[in-house]
Please model this.
Amino acid sequence: MSNRSSKPLVPAPGTPLRFSLRGLLLFVLLCSVAFGLLFRFLLPAVRSAQEAARRGVCAGHLKQIGLALQNYHDVHGCFPSPYIADAQGKPMHSWRVAITPYIESGPFYQQYDLSRPWDAPGNLALTRAWWHDFYACPSANPQPGAGFTNYVMVVGPSAAARAGEWRSLDQITDGPAKTVLVAEIADSDIFWAEPRDLSVDEMSLRINDKSKPSISSHHPHGAMALFADGSIKLLDESTTSAELRAMLTSAADD
Model:
């Protein structure tokens, strides 16, 4: 029998525990690495969920605009012209101003002076105060009070929206469900009441083309669009020029 004594595997009650400083540092280091790896793997999922939420809000904004346009159509028998002009035909106000009575019942439209340009001091102060965030995409990080919009009509001689024309659903012979009426643009410098939109003749027919004006957004892989029937769709970057052109024309034979 060995006379060597051995230390108990479990300390006796009341015996103070002694930790190795090196072991403690190693434990902290391992925990830091583990949390770092966990954060690295979870961060893309968190960002993806946040962007999905912003895209949902963006679709909701377009839905609200679409309902206002449909209500305008129900009352007047047509959609608003892309702009309201003066007696000489000069664009004075945006269609976004024309649909405000169908968005809320407040006093804005009664106080807005249609006889003066959108950027006349009185109108500009009023439109800055009234601006709503549904005129901007949350993924574009809109600045409160700036008044810029990310939603524009796509305007052209063969489009659903035509300069100086009030057009009805019956005139969209290609089918309202196939025809884009309003779309997103990224990094917009268009004030929401300004009579300025996206011209088919000047725009790129590629989604998210940064080289020239285009249907574009800060959403990954595409941009949102409102069709004439009120439906909302994400137009993917893989959409061909021919496919997009077909969506931007309102006549079946275009």
Residues 23-248 form one domain.
